[in-house]
Fold this sequence. Notes:
Blueprint: H1 2-9, H2 30-35, H3 48-52, E1 62-68, H4 73-83, H5 88-102, E2 112-115, H6 120-126, H7 132-142, E3 145-146, E4 151-153, H8 165-172, E5 176-178, E6 187-196, H9 200-210, E7 215-225
Parallel strand pairs: 1-7, 2-3, 2-6, 6-7
Antiparallel strand pairs: 4-5
Amino acid sequence: MVRDIYNLLFPEMCPGCSVRLSPGERTICTVCRHRLPVTEYHLIRENPVEKIFYGRVKIEFAAAFLLFRKKGVVQQLIHHLKYKGQSDIGIFLGKWYGACLSETGLRNKIDMVIPVPLHPKKQRKRGYNQVTAFAKCIADAVKADYREDILIKTTNIKAQAFKNRLARWKESESIFDIRQGIAFAPCHILLVDDVITTGATLERCARALQKHGNVKVSIAVMAMTV
């Protein structure tokens, strides 16, 4: 009864379309869930995400769960996840995509899952890393350790969204590193982020991991821009 009264006074709205969620719906409405542009890239070798890194950095596997289009439902979800504090969106997408990835053969083959880190100043301002919940759910699904204490961002730069590839490359150079005192044995790391456009950020993260040990790197992201 208390929950019903609370929902009446403070109705939960779908972040995808701003419509009130019906009883039984969680996080997003049924309509928006069916509208999500799922890529199924995790089932395709040499998919568009893997091709981004050809000739740039060695990646074992790479895929994006969804396609990100301007003014689309995915943009709305990620906006609410990053700037509205709705971490339940990360959980929702992470559990769904984690289940998909666990069926590809990655289950028990990934040693650790690492989210792309925010600079400490930005994380303090935002309050959390928007990738954390998504990455944790994937780690659970593929039976891997979740580690956010290894990779760090050493330089705080402006948002990347509207910069071209060259500008992203120059600004992302040498801004990621391994935390001092961290050492790890040869392993397979799944690097996780929210949106991939040019791949500059993920490339630099992969290079930082690879130069500190004999590691394999794979990539999983919430969405790829189109």
